[in-house]
Amino acid sequence: MTFFLFFFSLTARRCHPTGAVIAHFHTSSIVSAKQHYKMLVLGGGTGGIAMSARMKRVVGADNVAVVEPAEMHYYQPIWTLVGAGAKTLASSGRPTASIIPSGVKWVKSAVQEINPQTNTVRTEDGNEISYEYLIVALGLQLHYEKIKGLPEGFEHPKIGSNYSIKTVEKTWKALQDFKEGNAIFTFPNTPVKCAGAPQKIMYLTDAYLRKTGKRDKAKVIYNTSLPVLFGIKKYAETLWDIVKTRDLQVNLRHNLIEVRADKQEAVFENLDKPGETTVFEYEMLHVTPPMGPHFVVKGSPLADEAGWLDVNKDTLQHNKYPNVFGIGDCTNLPTAKTGAAVAAQSAILNRTINKVMKNEKPDKKYDGYTSCPLVTSYNTVVLAEFDYNGQPLETFPLNQAKERRLMYFMKADVMPHLYWHGLLRGFWGGPGPYRKLLHLGMK
Ligand SMILES: Cc1cc2nc3c(=O)[nH]c(=O)nc-3n(C[C@H](O)[C@H](O)[C@H](O)COP(=O)(O)OP(=O)(O)OC[C@H]3O[C@@H](n4cnc5c(N)ncnc54)[C@H](O)[C@@H]3O)c2cc1C
């Protein structure tokens, strides 16, 4: 209840009575004389905008700049529903200009190089910007090109991918055009963002095919590189029950290596038997691409051995450069990469930076909180929430491993508002305080 009150008070404060969202004014970026900022944020995605809003309150808008090349900002989690025709792509995006906190400088360019020894970054257009404190929020990179036959294969029908703005609507098209045969869903052999998304679209496809009377003509197959269906046992048990009941075939340790889109064939390697490959014909293919660290982070002294931003898992401060901080998908935080994790991290990072600025020791620890609303049909969700240890950390005082309509409502209708009006404005730091309240202080 408190959660909903919080949510509605936020939306009420932030929306115009007509329902239109008021765009903020911000300083334009094209010509810039000032090339030094007290607080420089790299990336204007989920973590970058949330931290800009918070840092504006700490050091003042004039002292904060965000480097972000994209004209549009997208709420990526809703793409799962866009791919299944339950939401429109247009509803997922807003102009970047409207979400940069008012007064904060938007540097409309891409960062190319980070030099933490000189406290500078270089942008694509050749400018050098210096900083006192740096927050890196560059997200991760999608690597469709690591699968033979992609990305050009997306020019053919019957194939889509919810992970990219360019291909998410192709998923919905492939689903609508389905006649008979295999509907195949993949999970790559790399870390991914929102590890539930590759299978959510499978459950939605199954539901759609049942609704349209085509399910008996379809074989629904989930080919995953992982040795498990889902990493957290409590939720995996529910998911295994669902796949059995709905006759969904799961092939573990199957990694997509090639798409022959002209022939509607997908080639998988068996990760447990090197050299062994299997060709699957498909009537519909949903690809989750391999993913990896951002090339700018990877090529900088800020990276760990694998290329991810090397931060302290408790405080989010960089392990070598104390005036550098990280948030979100670009970091090496050992938790699942999600927007929900970014929300919890933003509150901790805010606290850490405040302490560091006062020459005090950071005192609050991030517990690894992350969440994955596993959409299991057009009106049900299993809301997985867990911490660094893979222990469930559930907000609601009910068993969240059950499929629930309430959680679908949360995913489809509440969370987008919480994102635009709470998280991006630096007011939503995850459900921690509400969890405590809803569990009468016991969690
Ligand atoms: C299909 C799908 C489903 C998902 N479902 C969920 C879900 O249900 N729940 C959930 O919590 N999360 C979900 N996520 C994950 C969530 O969207 C991400 O984890 C989150 O957005 C990460 O935030 P970030 O700030 O780290 O990265 P991003 O939000 O990706 O932001 C990175 C930003 O950096 C910018 N950038 C890139 N290169 C440069 C450069 N060189 N210079 C400057 N800027 C640059 C980009 O343009 C972007 O704006 C989903 C994601 C997808 C794709």
Automatic annotation (TrEMBL):
Cellular localisation: Mitochondrion
Enzyme class: oxidoreductase
Gene Ontology cellular component list: mitochondrion
Signal peptide start and end residues: 1-17
Ranges for domain FAD/NAD(P)-binding: 37-161
EC number, UniProt record: 1.8.5.8
Keywords, ordered alphabetically: FAD, Flavoprotein, Mitochondrion, Oxidoreductase, Quinone, Signal, Transit peptide
Record field: catalytic activity: ubiquinone-10 + hydrogen sulfide + sulfite + 2 H(+) = ubiquinol-10 + thiosulfate; ubiquinone-10 + hydrogen sulfide + glutathione + H(+) = S-sulfanylglutathione + ubiquinol-10; a quinone + hydrogen sulfide + glutathione + H(+) = S-sulfanylglutathione + a quinol
Gene Ontology biological process terms, A to Z: sulfide oxidation, using sulfide:quinone oxidoreductase
Superkingdom per UniProt: Eukaryota
Principal location: mitochondrion
Necessary cofactors: FAD
Family listed: Belongs to the SQRD family.
Function per UniProt: Catalyzes the oxidation of hydrogen sulfide with the help of a quinone, such as ubiquinone-10, giving rise to thiosulfate and ultimately to sulfane (molecular sulfur) atoms. Requires an additional electron acceptor; can use sulfite, sulfide or cyanide (in vitro). It is believed the in vivo electron acceptor is glutathione.
Name of this protein: Sulfide:quinone oxidoreductase, mitochondrial
